[in-house]
Amino acid sequence: MRYGRDYRLGDIVTVDVYGGVTVDEVVREVEITADRRGRVTRPRIGMVGATRTTRTALLLRDALARLASIERR
Predict the structure, then answer these.
(1) Beta-bridge partners for 21
(2) What is the CA radius of gyration of the chain?
(3) To 10 degrees, the CA torsion angle through 41, 42, 48, 51?
(4) Nearest-CA neighbor of 46 among 38, 58, 54?
(5) Residue ranges per structural domain of the chain
(6) Burial status of residue 5 (CB atoms within 10 A of its CB: 0-12, 13-18, 19 or more)
(7) pTM of the model as a whole
(8) Distance from the Cα of residue 62 to its chain's centroid
(9) DSSP 30-68
(10) pLDDT tens digits, residue range 10-44?
């Protein structure tokens, strides 16, 4: 996927956050830097700078903790 071609600022994207666990979030910010090797684009999704934990984040945190518990057994 390529910024500017496949998605843009404000689009809703699906991100694989861990082993097939996905979340749908809005592209809130895009950092673009360039050096001799070329351009690097770093999109940021979700609530940038938010202090409140969303319901999705709480569910994901719980699911990952439960999965880690199963893997330890």
Answers:
(1) 18
(2) 15
(3) -160
(4) 54
(5) 12-72
(6) exposed
(7) 0.55
(8) 17
(9) EEEEEETTEEEEEEEES-TT--SPPHHHHHHHHHHHHHH
(10) 899 988 877 788 888 888 888 889 988 888 888 88
